[in-house]
Write a structure and sequence with these properties.
Low-confidence stretches: none
Shape: elongated
Strand order of the largest sheet: 1-2
Number of helices: 1
Radius of gyration: 33 Å
């Protein structure tokens, strides 16, 4: 048997906003997994921040590979390629030819300001 009245029409005040709510709509505000003593409205309650649970979450993230293999296709991985699913190659656009040939170059740029 409970020693508190049911109070279906009782109201309370939100500790955060001061607004009046039905008492059944006030909930406990949880911080770092513990109740901080505030009763707040359901529409203004803050969810517990997951970044504060660093000790509770397994943050193990190994970086080393067990059986690493060197890349044997390094030349193929450094080549350039193009893909045209519709035309299948170079297409004419007006008076000029639009191709999918790709080229790259490395150079030096000098900038002078006055």
């Amino acid at each position: 048997m409970s020693s508190y009245a049911k109070g279906s029409k009782a109201f309370g005040f939100c500790d955060r906003t001061g607004f009046r709510y039905p008492l059944r709509d006030l909930v406990r505000q949880i911080e770092d997994g513990r109740w901080n003593g505030l009763l707040v409205g359901r529409d203004v309650v803050d969810q517990d921040q997951p970044q504060l649970k660093l000790g509770d979450v397994n943050a193990n993230d190994p970086q080393a590979l067990r059986f690493p293999r060197p890349d044997s296709s390094i030349d193929e991985s450094r080549s350039l390629s193009a893909f045209d699913p519709v035309g299948g190659g170079n297409t004419a656009l007006g008076s000029r030819t639009v191709g999918l040939d790709m080229a790259g170059a490395v150079g030096r740029v000098t900038v002078e300001t006055s």
